[in-house]
Design a protein that fits this description.
Elements: H1 3-9, E1 10-12, H2 13-20, H3 24-32, E2 39-41, E3 44-48, H4 49-103, H5 110-140, H6 145-164, H7 170-181, H8 183-192
Helix pairs in contact: 2-3, 5-6
Length: 193
Amino acid sequence: MSDNTLDAKLINSNALAEIFGVTTRRIQQLTKEGIIDSIKIKGSNRYESTETIKQYIKYLSDKANNRESKDSEAVDSEARKSKAEADLKESKAGMAALELNELEGKMHRSEDVEAMTTDLVFAIRSMIMALPGRLAIDLANINTAAEASEIIKKECHGILSDLANYKYDPEEYKRRVRERKGWREAEEDGSEE
């Protein structure tokens, strides 16, 4: 290809600016940024029209896709934020429902059940530990093993009867909840007025 044929396809920055609808300064910036290629002829930039137009179209397309991508990322981010807020509200509502069930006595915390069970075990333990002292005097006057066995059996049945009569006390659980929440002092303060 001769220089004259090459010169016929080359245009200057003013003509390119007019084709793109931008300023000559913007053409210089695009060249400097490497977005469009130029050829230096006699100290000034010249542009191969077809190839430069393709480069500029590609640049604008990439720019539009990036902007679109950023917009979709913003929408995704907003959707994730909305979902997180909804999840948080749902969690708070669930916690409030659990707390209400606890306050109404429909549900008990494991530590309250453990404390109540421990109290029961200690009550049984104390009854069993008191058994020898209660039986000692009665058994001291007994001469036969059968009579001793009958007295011991009677006392054991008394303990088992007490245990069988143990009843669930919802008020005790409610008292423990109020105590844990610090409401007991508030109730006592309110009743004094």
